[in-house]
Design goal:
The structure is a homodimer of 452-residue chains.
Chain A: H1 20-39, E1 43-44, E2 50-52, H2 54-57, H3 62-65, E3 70-71, E4 80-82, H4 87-97, E5 105-109, E6 112-114, E7 126-135, H5 140-156, E8 164-170, H6 171-181, H7 188-196, H8 203-212, H9 217-230, H10 261-269, E9 276-278, E10 292-298, E11 307-311, H11 315-318, E12 326-332, H12 333-342, E13 358-362, H13 370-379, E14 384-386, H14 394-403, E15 408-412, E16 420-425, E17 431-435, H15 439-450
Parallel strand pairs in A: 1-5, 8-9, 13-14, 13-15
Antiparallel strand pairs in A: 2-4, 3-4, 5-7, 6-7, 7-12, 8-10, 10-11, 11-12, 15-16, 16-17
Helix pairs in contact in A: 1-5, 5-10
Amino acid sequence: MAATNTHTFQAPKGTRDFYPPDMAVRRHLESVWREVSINHGFEEVDGPTFEHLDLYTVKSGPGIVSELFSFRRAGGDTDYALRPEFTPTLARMVAASAHALPKPIKWFCIPNFFRAERPQRGRLREFFQWNADIVGDDSPAADAEVIALTIGILEGLDLTPNDVRVKISHRGGIARVLLRYGFQGDRLLDAFDLLDSLDKTSLDEFKAKALTLGLSDVQWNDFREWLGLAARANQPVLTMPGAPPEISRFHPQTFDLLELEPLHGELESRGISHWCDYKPSLARGLAYYTGTVFEVHETSGKERAIAGGGRYDNLVELFGGPSTPAVGIAMGDVVIRLMLEERGLLEPAEAYLPRPDLFVIDVTEDQALSAKLIADLRRENLHVRHSYRATKNVGKLLGEAGKTRARLAVILGKELERGVVGLKNLESGEQEEVQLDALLETVRATLHTMKK
Amino acid sequence: MAATNTHTFQAPKGTRDFYPPDMAVRRHLESVWREVSINHGFEEVDGPTFEHLDLYTVKSGPGIVSELFSFRRAGGDTDYALRPEFTPTLARMVAASAHALPKPIKWFCIPNFFRAERPQRGRLREFFQWNADIVGDDSPAADAEVIALTIGILEGLDLTPNDVRVKISHRGGIARVLLRYGFQGDRLLDAFDLLDSLDKTSLDEFKAKALTLGLSDVQWNDFREWLGLAARANQPVLTMPGAPPEISRFHPQTFDLLELEPLHGELESRGISHWCDYKPSLARGLAYYTGTVFEVHETSGKERAIAGGGRYDNLVELFGGPSTPAVGIAMGDVVIRLMLEERGLLEPAEAYLPRPDLFVIDVTEDQALSAKLIADLRRENLHVRHSYRATKNVGKLLGEAGKTRARLAVILGKELERGVVGLKNLESGEQEEVQLDALLETVRATLHTMKK
């Protein structure tokens, strides 16, 4: 014991202890993620918490690799890493069973992920993240389905298009813009990374990097003007070819997102285009995106992206599977929770704790019956609590029952001599006498009316 | 890519990929764990997936420490380890908030754990494990509550006392037996470890170790006789003082489990003593147990323990909190699943996949309505699927609907001209025509009757 530091007694930096109220909020978020994903026809999967290290070094941009927690087994020679994201695992799992799985594959998962970066607001070393992917369908309808699912989740969390926007862009359109302004064709991935860093970089630094990627000073001035227009993230930037001129804020030739026209139609037919903006400066940093990319942002622009994803048509093949198109999205638990709290869209954490059906109060002398009664009621799938205090004051015990938010209280007192117990509805305050052998039935019937 | 080994494309040894049917079985198990725990008044918690390494080196026996996956952040100087069990995290969390938390604390959790040992049947490097603990109550009633919860879960998984037995012992009673036969008082923890290894060790090896712990050859012979009696794990060993002689198979002076008499009364009052046997050779290996210990075993004795736990009254204090009694149990997902499968107590995995409420079949020419209809129905919290195939053959599409186990099919055909769609009950085969604007209401009413 002498050698123990006090840090032993704290959660590691950037990780969290989930006491019951916090855990209940996490489960609430997870249940919205899960329920909406299932309603949209997605099936849940999971993979290992750690993978072979080279699953990540093979395909991710440097943005991921420097942030890994990696390790070996004592005496072993295999390098592992805690998963920083799900897409490589998904691509590996699809590649391994590609021929056996009917297409399209629609999968979601809600695992934890790990990044060895400095913890800061909205970024932790361990976090939970919902992922949803459609694999084996290269149509804009699949892109729209992933976006529709995401919007379903935002709605399930009581958010509206006034709170959050889905920003959409396309790697093909961005590539044409970048080439037009003078970026080198063989440095496009770096140019995507640079564009992705726009909000986190000073203009001087941004310019210096742009010049190393092929731009002349003259080209930089033109590109800077484009950036100024394209980066107005808080305005709807409807620049579809064919969009009515009065809502086209910028000239379509400037914002070349031709590829998104069919997606726009799909979003309209699902009744969700009013959640979406087209933002041509959105590139997203990861190397593996090949087409449509999207992010969900708060309208205030204050927090980091709430969710992000896109199309990655080459990844399954990279992991040894057949050529397979894919599109997916991910939403972490940290930023969305900060945002819901700030907007007052979460109840106090205690409100998410499971409510007891029954609180059993036993003020008889020997309390011989209650242990058996409680055991029997729990065996009937009822959530039953009781006091651990010695008091036989019914008022105090009813107060304790109220604090647990129990729906009903069963009171075992001297009426037991007549084979009768008290049943109190803790919402209405009504109390009745019930024959002990009719208790279960009465409890069920009362709960049925209360839960409606 | 050139440097990539094929192992990159497989899950690491001892870990699992959960494709949808496997994931559905895991969720089934987790939902039984969760629901029964909540019904028994336990609240869910979680901690970090990795902890400071010395959280484990401080208190666990050598059985744990040699099995850790440990690591540092690149460039960091702090040692971390993937959690091999929950108890140290729980003790740390309780110690940190001991004064703020009302007693008794009743917590459960369902995290994943990691052991860097050789994978084998029933033992993996990553597994899921349910834990439940009562902290701040030193009564036999708390021991009984943890055992009652465990039995509630076994019942929830359709197991009976003919399938599994709860084996119960007590460190105090075992200590007296060991001292009586000649084990050294300062080597008792090693003697517990040795006793715990009984089923995995040859008798010669066992004897050799026993002699190093203080036994003479004569004492060994006596002790060996005791072992032979005590180890009959498949027989009820009711040795309580006061137990009727006809069910006391062994002489009470031989099996000194005096401390368990009050627990036996608590189990009887809850109506669960017929699930339980007293097994005096059960010591359990971990160093931190201080009183009652228990394990759940298959009656055949074939598999490893299904669950195990006990009382650990010193651990919270060891982590800097006030002196706090505690008792807990844990059940992993691997052994219980093997056992349920072997006994035919699991449905085919597909049966645990969520059933769609509706399968939408659109055989109209332009399919203009169905994208919107599907989006609207999902927004109403219905689980809605549709085909991705080009066919307009209603029979084939109904076949596809059947494979998803959907409850209802909505058929959009030429009746749409009259504002009407077909609604087919896929369980009864009945089909009716429904006005499009009454569809949602009719679907809800029909599902309500079907789900009962």
